[in-house]
Amino acid sequence: MKLAFVMCAMVALSECLLQVPLEKGQSAREYLEEQGLWEEYRLKYPYNPMAKFDPSFAVAGEPMTNDADLAYYGIISIGTPPQSFKVIFDSGSSNLWVPSVYCNSAACNNHDKFNPSQSSTYRRNGRALRIQYGTGSMTGFLGYETVTVGGLAVRNQIFGLSESEAPFMQHMRADGILGLAYPRLSASGATPVFDNMMKEGLVNQDIFSVYLSSHSAQGSVVTFGGTDPNHYTGPITWIPLSNELYWQITVDSVTVNGQVVACSGGCQAIVDTGTSLIVGPQSSISNINSFVGASSQNGDYIVNCNNIGQMPHVVFHIQGQEFTIPASGYVRQSRYFGCRTGFGNGGDNLWILGDVFIRQYYSIFSRAQNMVGLAKAK
């Protein structure tokens, strides 16, 4: 797989886009299902998708969560000479961290680990970093390094080196996380990678955008510095942020067959590449799943795989526009557990528009205008 490439528009060679291909690998859930370990894992490490957005989970650091369905990761490099890592590009957090050689947790032993002694550009910061998960945590410390993303080097980038990691992380394909939310969210005051890209003039526009392929393991991409028209069709709907911390927007309502089934009178939602599902309040999610014909079973909402072609669309009304999720987009099929919807229970009020939504809509994150842009994905 290509690690990264730079794409320049034919009309203006100065308008360069930094692109990192994303691989859609086997999720932790798929691996555990294959091994017959999913039920044991699910009970031991219950999924709380709102943990990363709930300050009560933070203990002197940034809250995160254990999402076993995350499947997309890209490759960056850290240090001189470069050491490569698979990371989740997460618009719902702000820190960059990877495993280090100082970590002896099981989760570190089957992932690539950064070795500061093998890099000529490493500088230790010394401050501690703690990222609290819904179950378990990552602990470590901060350092400075050259981080190469999309083929260009971000120098003196502060990042986390793990010394311990929560056990559930050993089943995740990605080594670490590269956060793309606002700097106010960053643990230990660490400047996010994209903020340094903007400060150093590495991007032509203060925008990054994400395309997630629905159909294959390859083809997904995160683009820094603009948008890639090859991955969307039709107009872009620009939505102002309602909170400049996460990529948070206002949703007007959610309908099925023209009937409001959730978010009546409006609700708040975060567009998050680091969450696999569409997540909402339990009563609203239960209502949506009921309307599409799903039944609750062991925390999942199950449907008959033979009914997908007849199941209704779910429509999110945002900024006066309709964003339609067809059944083929919101139903996930497993060789081991049949078909389940991609609508999951979350907190009391907040919604998360995760990968199930982003696969349908090319998502553009503008720091210049503090807006999210959505366009129909190709």
Task: Please tell me about this protein's structure.
The protein is mostly beta strands and 378 residues long. It folds into two domains: 5-209, Cathepsin D, subunit A, domain 1 (Beta Barrel), CATH 2.40.70; 231-377, Acid Proteases (Cathepsin D, subunit A, domain 1, Beta Barrel). It is 11% helix and 44% strand. The protein has helices at residues 28-34, 38-44, 106-109, 193-199, 282-291, 327-330, 355-358, and strands at 5-9, 12-24, 62-63, 72-78, 83-90, 96-99, 123-132, 137-149, 152-164, 176-179, 207-211, 220-224, 232-240, 243-244, 247-251, 253-256, 259-262, 267-271, 278-280, 295-297, 300-303, 314-318, 321-325, 331-334, 338-341, 343-345, 351-353, 361-366, 371-377. The strands form four sheets. It has a six-stranded mixed beta barrel. Strand 14 (243-244) and strand 15 (247-251) form a beta hairpin. The chain starts with a strand and ends with a strand. The model is unreliable at 1-14 (pLDDT under 50). Residues 1-16 form the signal peptide. InterPro entries: Aspartic_peptidase_A1, Aspartic_peptidase_AS, Aspartic_peptidase_N, PEPTIDASE_A1, Peptidase_aspartic_dom_sf. Its EC number is 3.4.23.1. It comes from Thunnus orientalis. One of its GO terms (molecular function) is aspartic-type endopeptidase activity.
Q: How is the secondary structure organized here?
A:
Elements: E1 5-9, E2 12-24, H1 28-34, H2 38-44, E3 62-63, E4 72-78, E5 83-90, E6 96-99, H3 106-109, E7 123-132, E8 137-149, E9 152-164, E10 176-179, H4 193-199, E11 207-211, E12 220-224, E13 232-240, E14 243-244, E15 247-251, E16 253-256, E17 259-262, E18 267-271, E19 278-280, H5 282-291, E20 295-297, E21 300-303, E22 314-318, E23 321-325, H6 327-330, E24 331-334, E25 338-341, E26 343-345, E27 351-353, H7 355-358, E28 361-366, E29 371-377
Parallel strand pairs: 3-7, 5-10, 6-9, 18-27, 19-26
Antiparallel strand pairs: 1-2, 2-4, 2-12, 4-5, 4-8, 6-10, 7-8, 8-9, 11-12, 11-28, 13-29, 14-15, 15-18, 16-17, 16-22, 19-27, 20-21, 21-25, 22-23, 24-25, 28-29
